[in-house]
Amino acid sequence: MNKNIERFNTEKPEVYEPSFDHEAEKEKRKQIRKMLVQMLTESLKPAGFKKQGYSLWTRKSGDQWQMVYLWRNPYTAHEYDIEVGICPEQELKKGEKPDITSCSKQYDIGRMARDARRADSPEEIDEQKEKALVRGIRDTLHFEIPDAHTKYPDEYYYFPSISLEEAQNRVDTMKELVEKHIPAWFDKHGNIKD
Description:
alpha+beta
């Protein structure tokens, strides 16, 4: 018998032992998501938004629904984005609940911050700084530890998250951005009549 085949048949495959607790990581992710949801609920309530379901906040303004959506990236393990949208009521089928995918006008928090900075200083537009701003906001909503995919190459979905303290700091940063940019975006693009 070929020695390679013999070795293959007799050797036990190496079993991967994760170096972190997956169950504890699942709980940490729940806590981080809860922080984000609580921040959005508290930040949007003064503007008249109400939480609808798992990740959506809505308010009715005239003949349109205005929405804020906490989107989780399905292609990375622990990354979010905050999106907004305006959905004219006539575009909804009768009895249909508003949904961010129904919105004809959609935007995200990173582009809002970029556009606000451009409006404040139109003569100073530096494309590299603009890209860095948007990337920085996206990084704020990314909760995996740095280089997680390199450090844990055998993982497919669960990678360790940053500490809860660091996550809270990032959520606090997002709170400032949400309160500054989201109401202003709806004021500019919506037909608020209430």
